Amino acid sequence: MCRTIAAQTEWIKSELQSGAKRIGILKEAQRKAEVATQSPEKTPDAWQVLAEAHLRQARLQGGLLKEQAAHIEEGLASVNKALAINPNHVASRVTQGDLHVLSATLLRNSEERSAAGQRAVPVSYTHLAAFLGSPGTV
What we know:
Layout: H1 2-15, H2 19-37, H3 44-60, H4 65-85, H5 90-106, H6 110-132
């Protein structure tokens, strides 16, 4: 748990920076999150924090499609590992939805973009609603 908090602390530090310095801090957050996933205690939180680190880096890579796509792919792989531990892990579902939305924005073909966006909506909304206690969900 402490290792995931250390990675999240880096996110906050990155928000106070810009440019290359911000990217460097997010890479450090990713490194710390990767260490957290190696803990003997297997929790979805560590994998979700790693996925979020990739998401944040992908958002900063504006215009660098190859780098964005790589971070999205790694983020989704991390989310899948979190969901293998706990399929109802809300933070992982929300991060998964955010990754799908970002992925959709990178697509040129409007049909592919629409399909990618549609994958994001039920993932985020359904699990967030369940977390908030809305009836008739997950």
